[in-house]
Design goal:
Number of helices of chain A: 6
Oligomer: homodimer
Number of strands of chain A: 3
Helix content of chain A: 55-70%
Strand content of chain A: 5-15%
Radius of gyration of chain A: 20 Å
Mean pLDDT of chain A: 89
Largest sheet of chain A: 3 strands, antiparallel
Chain lengths: 116, 116
DNA sequence: CCGACATATGAATAAGTGTTCATGTGTAAC
DNA sequence: GTTACACATGAACACTTATTCATATGTCGG
C-alpha cells in the first residue's frame, strides 16, 4: 500500500496540501457518476438527437434504430441525472435536454476527438 | 422494433434530416468511450490530483490512499485516451495532464453538480 | 552482481451495466 | 368496455470493468 515517502528529495512533500485543495470524496464520486452517464453510446446518441429539440420515445427509438424498451431505460438514467426532462402529452412522453452544460461537455468531447 | 411512424400528425416526419446532422456512429461510439474514462472515481481523482502539476505513481497512490497497482492500471487507461502523458526519469514515471479540454470538462461537470 | 525500489502487467475474481423479453400502466378511439 | 397504442418497468442474461494478487521489467546504490 501507500509508501511513507516516495520520489525522495522532498519532491512530493506537500501531498497534504494537494489533498486539501481537492473536492471531498463524495463530490468526486458523484462527479464520476455524472460522467458515467455520457459513457454509453446509446445515451450519447439520445443526447445528440435531442439537440434538435424535444422528441418522443418512439421517435428516438426509430431514429436510432433501437428498441423502445432500451431507449426508455436509458432515458430513465438520463432523467435521474438531470440531463433530460420529460413532458407528458396524452399517451406520449416528450423528452428534451435539461442543462446547458450537457451541450458544452458534449462539444468539448468532440473537440478532443478531432485533435489527433 | 422501430415503428414506421410514431406520434402521428407528422410531428416527427423529419427524422432523416435529424439523422443527417448527427455525427456518424463510429464518432459517437468513440465519444462515449472517451467519456467513459471520466466515469470512474479513481480516474477522476487522478485527474483532479494532476491539476497541481506532474506527479509520480507512488505519490498519487499515497495521496489517494489506493494501491500502486490500481493507480498504474488506471493511468494506463488515462494515457491510452490521451488524458495524461508520461515522462520517465530514472526509475520514476511522472504523469501530467495532456489536454486542455480535460480541465474544462471536469469543471463543467462540477458546475452541473452544484446547480441543484 | 545483488538487493531495494518504482512501475508495469497478466490473470482471476467480484461487482456493475446494457439489452432483451415479458408484462404492467395509462391514454385515446371506437 | 374493449382494443390499440405509447411508454415504463422488473427480471434475467451476457458482457464489461475495477481491484487485487502475484510477478515481471527496469533502475539505482552499494
Amino acid at each position: 500500500m501507500a509508501d511513507e515517502r516516495c520520489c525522495g528529495l522532498d519532491k512530493h512533500e506537500g501531498l497534504d496540501d494537494i489533498k486539501k485543495e481537492m473536492p471531498d470524496d463524495d463530490t468526486l464520486f458523484y462527479l464520476a457518476d455524472f460522467f458515467k452517464v455520457f459513457g454509453d453510446s446509446t445515451r450519447i446518441k439520445i443526447v445528440c438527437a435531442l439537440f434538435n429539440g424535444e422528441m418522443c420515445v418512439g421517435s428516438i427509438a426509430e431514429l436510432l434504430n433501437l428498441t423502445q424498451s432500451s431507449i426508455s431505460h436509458q432515458l430513465r438514467v438520463l432523467k435521474a441525472n438531470r440531463l433530460v426532462k420529460a413532458r407528458k402529452e396524452g399517451k406520449y412522453a416528450f423528452y428534451s435536454l435539461d442543462d446547458i452544460h450537457v451541450m458544452e461537455i458534449y462539444k468539448m468531447g468532440l473537440e478532443h476527438l478531432k485533435e489527433k
